[in-house]
Write a structure and sequence with these properties.
Blueprint (H helix, E strand, L loop, with lengths): L11 H12 L7 H13 L4 E5 L2 H11 L7 E5 L4 H8 L4 E5 L21 E4 L11 H11 L2 E5 L7 E2 L2 E2 L6 E5 L12 E5 L5 H8 L5 H5 L19 H11 L2 H24 L3 E2 L7 E2 L5 E5 L2 H13 L15 H5 L8 H9 E4 L7 H13 L1
The structure holds pyridoxal-5'-phosphate (PLP).
The site of pyridoxal-5'-phosphate (PLP) has 14 residues, from helix 3 and helix 4.
Family: Belongs to the DegT/DnrJ/EryC1 family.
EC number: 2.6.1.59
Protein name: dTDP-4-amino-4,6-dideoxygalactose transaminase
Length: 373
């Protein structure tokens, strides 16, 4: 049996969890949270990086920071995870779904401007599969219309766009360290703040609306309630796990890249035979091998392939059901046919197993099923 995903663990996680225990401080913002956030600031950039309990929470924190209010509109792809939309819907915003590009499956930057109204507050590009959106174009549109850009880089940790790390280009970037992502703390995430103006308030909102972060740094002698807020700190036990993963940052990526390249070169002949379409990586994007997808020619062909693989004990999976045709999306007034590329891609896509410990012989076995299909 080949699972779809396996959490990679190095053993050092336990050592760091034990150390966190020995420190006697398991609540947030201790030694390991500091190690992880400093590491990200130095490696990826950004004015400040705040560790959060999930990428969902990082997105929520961003929505709070830009003061999303009922009636505001936020432009995003429909081909994404629910949290991209929910973080803003929670604040009363209306998600405005934009179709995707057939090549990268990312938001189609040429369709964004038509969706901008007086109520538009932000654009949320999602870097699908860790492959960068056209950030130059998106940042230009945002600048011209005075909009915020929040990168949903949940899948894009340690991936780049023209030499910059994903998550460091918009006003904010959001990372996920969920078990299904490249680097995992079980459940976790981070908010990358690229605009200095938001750093102080982000710390306050994350600390229940208090200035406790300043207090801990010794900048003030007591802390109090100063703003709205919530609790967006992960425990030190989770941060200790992430620190072990960060010590192997490049190794994890190299191993995933080897698997990704094995799939790509092994499946390449069948693309020529017009059976499948492989991922397209633009020159501007340095991807991180987060996932390997294949597009089949039709929905029945996709479903046939999925059940064939399942029969053989291989857990390949489809991906997003478009948000605009979900029950909630329909309740917002969207309907089938509104975003044709999103709908078509969603029906034809399969994701193949990819994790650091999958063996190349297992990858080759999966490739052989495509040969015979
Ligand atoms: C995984 C994912 C999220 C949510 O991440 P959590 O850490 O589980 O909250 C959000 N957006 C995208 C695009 C994702 O892939």
């Amino acid at each position: 049996m080949i699972p779809f995903n396996k959490q990679n663990l190095f053993g050092s996680e336990l050592k760091y969890i034990q150390d966190a225990y020995d420190q006697g401080k398991l609540s947030g913002d201790g030694k390991y949270t500091k190690l992880c956030s400093t590491f990200m600031e130095e490696k990826f950039g950004g004015e400040r990086v705040l560790l959060t309990p999930s990428c969902t929470h990082a997105l929520e924190l961003a929505a709070l920071l830009i003061d999303i209010k009922p009636g505001d509109e936020v432009i995003m792809p429909s081909y994404t995870f629910v949290s991209t939309a929910n973080a803003f819907v929670l604040r009363g915003a209306r998600p405005i779904f934009c179709d995707i590009r057939p090549d990268t499956l990312n938001i189609d930057e040429e369709k964004i401007e038509d969706l901008i109204t007086e109520r538009t507050k932000a654009i949320v590009p999602v870097h699908y599969a860790g492959v960068a959106c056209d950030m130059d174009r998106i940042m230009k549109i945002a600048h011209n219309h005075d909009l915020y850009v929040i990168e949903d880089a949940a899948q894009g940790v340690n991936a780049g766009y023209k030499g910059k790390y994903l998550g460091t280009i918009g006003h904010f970037g959001c990372y996920s360290f969920h078990e299904t992502k490249n680097y995992s703390m079980g459940e976790g995430g981070a908010l990358i703040i690229n605009d200095k103006r938001f750093v102080e308030r982000a710390e306050i909102i994350r600390e229940k609306g208090t200035d406790r972060s300043k207090f801990y740094r010794g900048e003030i002698d007591k802390y109090s309630w100063v703003d709205i807020g919530s609790s967006y700190l992960p425990s030190e036990i989770s941060a200790a796990v992430l620190w072990a993963q960060f010590e192997h940052l490049d190794e994890i990526q190299e191993r995933r890249m080897r698997i990704w390249n094995a799939y790509y070169s092994g499946l390449y002949p069948y693309e020529g035979a017009n059976k499948i379409r492989l991922p397209i990586i633009p020159n501007s994007a340095e991807h991180n091998a987060h996932l390997f997808y294949v597009l089949l020619n039709s929905e029945p062909a996709r479903d046939k392939m999925l059940s064939l693989l399942k029969e053989k004990g291989i857990f390949a999976v489809f991906h997003y059901l478009p948000l605009h045709t979900s029950p909630f999306g329909l309740s917002l007034g969207y309907k089938e046919g509104d975003l044709p590329i999103t709908e078509e891609i969603s029906r034809k896509l399969i994701r193949l197993p990819i994790y650091t410990s999958i063996h190349i012989s297992e990858v080759n076995k999966i490739i052989d099923y495509f040969a015979n299909y």
